[in-house]
TrEMBL record:
Source species of the chain: Motiliproteus coralliicola
Protein name: HAD family phosphatase
InterPro entries: Beta-PGM-like, HAD-like_sf, HAD-SF_hydro_IA, HAD_2, HAD_sf, PGP-like_dom2
Cofactor: Mg(2+)
Keyword tags: Magnesium, Metal-binding
SUPFAM superfamilies in UniProt: HAD-like
PANTHER family xref list: 6-PHOSPHOGLUCONATE PHOSPHATASE (PTHR46193), SLL1138 PROTEIN (PTHR46193:SF21)
The keyword Metal-binding appears for this protein: yes
Family: Belongs to the HAD-like hydrolase superfamily. CbbY/CbbZ/Gph/YieH family.
GO molecular function: catalytic activity; metal ion binding
Coiled coil residues, start to end: none
Amino acid sequence: MALNAVLFDFDGTLVDSEPLHFRVWQQLLSTHSIEFSEQDYKQLLLGVPSHQSTRLLIDRFQLDLSAKELQQQRAAILHARLSESSPPLMPYAQQTLVRLKQQGLALALVSASGRREIDRVLDAHAFADVFDTLITGDDIDRAKPNPDCYLAALKRLDLTPMDSIAVEDTRTGIQAARAANLPCLAVRNGYTPEHQLAQATRTFAHLGEACDWIVSKVCPGTYP
């Protein structure tokens, strides 16, 4: 079966935004007199959608406010930081997207982040138009590891898991792709522990390596 589409995760896969999300949570929790380390972030929140993160943190730290209130506080800090600067792209991200597009592949962005947040980052790096479709947290009710986001992307592209492949950086993302019956490539990001990538079809050091592998499969049309 020929490969026709590549479906990309956003945070930590295309955009080096995990440090930003850590600092946002750290700043927010400090206003409630809670110390929150980078290791805490990796253990508790890496790959977890923000609306689930709020409930998790409220329970863990016994915060006296609702999930909606904590989410609103997080959003305010996040958008203030994004207005100052955008997180950088992951190594080889732009080259990968351009190269795959030149190969005639459809590209989708599949993320649990909100559309407003994603649009601000895409606009900052001027590559919003490269994607054939975007699925964000605003489009689905159940976040990763549920497969709904990937199934929605395939439906919009009018493709099947047999002719598509996902690219992820966390265990929850890989689980979502595999639950949608998609082969899934994992790209190391410096945050996700290696053992959490074990369910991926293949694992690469960076997007450039993953891109080389994908392109090598386009002409023969056989994968994984």
